[in-house]
């Protein structure tokens, strides 16, 4: 039965007074959401009319995360409390809850080829490859999860490691990998022989796709951030061409796309060079960024990605944001705002701006806190995850408050709930229609799903409540929407996802949307 307006108003008031406890779980069975023609905080006299206009003209490939395959091989083997069962009981269920559509995954060549298979890069001696190593088993678990989720995977051959530490004692003597150039002092360097590099990468990809059946593998990237003192542009370009030829020779080029450049945020010359010289080999390009923060206006973020999109377009290709986070970096493993509630608003605002600028998707670094080596010290643990590692590990932190604030192992951070709103409702195959909110620190977008249903996202990083009269004259745009809100006062318990608080109906062709200060709101027909 349709509820009358007085009853709806009463229900909304009760939910607000109760701290919106309904936000910690989806409605069950035939339980109906309260209906309203406005969201809480909407003020008609202070509202701005916002119209859905023109799309960016691209189709999204999805929103995702970095998930490098070290949990089972490097973290469980530390014997500091992490268990193999935690993968199936905690990590995979959370991946399902987040609805992750894309994974960017590290590869290192010593996992499957610790020693050169033979002296001829044209012929792969498959019996010399260690496809059943513990490190490869850990990789298979990540790919299993992606396959189950129907998610797309980008495999990144990080580089040639100058220090190897394999679990198999038979390879204890393998330290500097045979692929390494004699030059370079980074922990990964360029190869001495591009043909050998291409053989190794192509052979493992062929194994994963054809022998293991991982249809989730869609893209390949040779080298992580090659512009960062690993391989100069003049040698990266011919290497990418060699890889392209090898994939064709091995009969798998039609099964994968080459996602190239992978450059850092301030070195667009690398992206531009790749677009100029690799237009025939590349299928799309990507860049990383850690230069935007709480004081960065939308126009700055938009301009950065618009320039990337324009560079990729010179080759007739799209652009993807391959890594992102905040600018509060302390080395490569820490960002000082990682535990802040407000970070969730920032991450959502960045994604909205990237999409509005024409990006075809984003990948957040990274899904989980984890060690990349089983013998690494606490300072080396990657701590940029949507959730943390074992609580006891943080007892080593120089700031005792880090440990004291934790109550559980694998405890989610606030940003887990915010980014999940995007991965759950901004789906691959969608089109993006930017919204002009007239505010440098509030960003909005409208997304039309492949089936025609709409989702609207607004991230309000200002200290004021904002009100909008949202209009969409396109087909289906004003159908009722469920309302989800990332609000510091109403975060769910544990790893449950934010649930809808009400159903928004249009009023005379308008969605009356109030967005609380420092919050994210999602209206969706999904």
Describe the structure in your own words:
Helix 6 links the parallel strand 8 and strand 9 (257-263). The protein is globular, with a radius of gyration of 24 Å. It has 11 helices and 22 strands. The protein has 2 domains: 5-57 and 429-524, Sandwich (Immunoglobulin-like); 62-424, Alpha-Beta Barrel (TIM Barrel). With 526 residues, the chain is an alpha/beta fold. Helix 9 (341-356) runs parallel beside helix 11. The strands form 5 sheets. The protein has an 8-stranded parallel β-sheet with strand order 11-10-9-8-5-4-3-14.
Task: Present the secondary structure layout.
Blueprint: H1 5-17, E1 35-36, E2 47-51, E3 62-66, H2 71-75, H3 84-98, E4 102-107, H4 134-149, E5 152-157, E6 160-161, E7 188-189, H5 194-211, E8 217-222, H6 233-249, E9 257-263, H7 268-277, E10 284-289, H8 298-313, E11 318-324, E12 329-330, E13 334-335, H9 341-356, E14 361-364, H10 400-404, H11 414-425, E15 431-435, E16 442-448, E17 454-460, E18 466-471, E19 481-486, E20 502-504, E21 511-515, E22 519-524
Parallel strand pairs: 1-20, 2-18, 3-4, 3-14, 4-5, 5-8, 8-9, 9-10, 10-11
Antiparallel strand pairs: 6-7, 12-13, 15-16, 16-17, 17-22, 18-21, 19-20, 19-22
Helix pairs in contact: 5-6, 7-8, 8-9, 9-11
What key phrases describe this protein's structure?
single chain, 526 residues, alpha/beta, Immunoglobulin-like, TIM Barrel, 2 domains, 7-stranded mixed β-sheet, 27% helix
């Amino acid at each position: 039965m349709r509820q009358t307006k007085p009853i709806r108003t009463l229900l909304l008031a009760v939910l607000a007074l109760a701290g919106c406890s309904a936000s910690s779980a989806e409605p069950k069975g035939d339980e109906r959401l309260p209906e309203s023609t406005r969201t809480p905080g909407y003020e008609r006299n202070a509202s701005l009319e916002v119209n859905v206009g023109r799309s960016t003209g691209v189709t999204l490939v999805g929103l995702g995360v970095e998930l490098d395959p070290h949990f089972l091989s490097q973290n469980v083997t530390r014997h500091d409390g992490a268990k193999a069962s935690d993968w199936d009981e905690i990590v995979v269920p959370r991946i399902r809850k987040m609805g992750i559509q894309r994974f960017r995954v590290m590869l290192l060549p010593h996992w499957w080829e610790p020693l050169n298979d033979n002296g001829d890069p044209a012929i792969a001696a498959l019996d010399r490859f260690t496809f059943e190593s513990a490190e490869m088993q850990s990789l298979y678990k990540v790919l299993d999860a992606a396959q189950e989720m129907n998610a797309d995977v980008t495999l990144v051959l990080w580089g040639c490691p100058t220090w190897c530490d394999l679990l198999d004692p038979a390879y204890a003597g393998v330290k500097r990998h045979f692929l390494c150039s004699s030059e370079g002092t980074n922990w990964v360097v360029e190869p001495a022989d591009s043909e050998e590099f291409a053989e190794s990468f192509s052979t493992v990809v062929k194994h994963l796709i054809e022998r293991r059946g991982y249809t989730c593998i869609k893209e390949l990237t040779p080298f992580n951030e090659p512009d960062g003192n690993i391989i100069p542009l003049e040698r990266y370009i011919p290497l990418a061409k060699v890889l392209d030829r090898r994939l064709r020779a091995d009969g798998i080029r039609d099964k994968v796309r080459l996602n190239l450049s992978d450059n850092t945020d301030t070195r667009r010359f690398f992206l531009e060079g790749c677009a100029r010289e690799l237009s025939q080999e590349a299928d799309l390009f990507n860049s990383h960024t850690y230069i935007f923060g709480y004081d960065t206006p939308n126009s700055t973020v938009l301009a950065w990605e618009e320039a990337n999109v324009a560079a990729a377009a010179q080759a007739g290709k799209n652009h993807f944001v391959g890594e992102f986070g905040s600018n509060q970096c302390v080395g490569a493993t820490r960002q000082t705002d990682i535990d802040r509630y407000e970070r969730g608003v920032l991450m959502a605002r960045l994604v909205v701006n990237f999409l509005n600028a024409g990006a075809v998707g984003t990948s957040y670094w990274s899904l989980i806190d984890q060690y990349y080596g089983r013998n690494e010290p606490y300072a080396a643990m990657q701590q940029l995850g949507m959730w943390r590692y074992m609580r006891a590990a943080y007892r080593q932190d120089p700031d005792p408050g880090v440990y004291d604030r934790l109550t559980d192992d694998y405890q989610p951070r606030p940003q887990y709930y915010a980014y999940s709103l995007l991965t759950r409702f901004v789906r691959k195959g969608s089109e993006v229609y930017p919204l002009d909110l007239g505010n440098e620190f509030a960003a909005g977008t409208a997304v039309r799903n492949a089936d025609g249903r709409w989702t609207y996202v607004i991230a309000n990083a200002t200290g004021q409540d904002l009100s909008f009269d949202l209009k969409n004259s396109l087909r289906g745009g004003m159908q009722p929407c469920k309302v989800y809100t990332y609000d510091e006062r109403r975060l769910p318990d544990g790893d449950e996802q934010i649930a809808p608080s009400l159903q928004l109906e249009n009023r005379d062709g308008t969605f009356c949307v109030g967005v609380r200060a420092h919050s994210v709101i999602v209206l969706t027909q999904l």
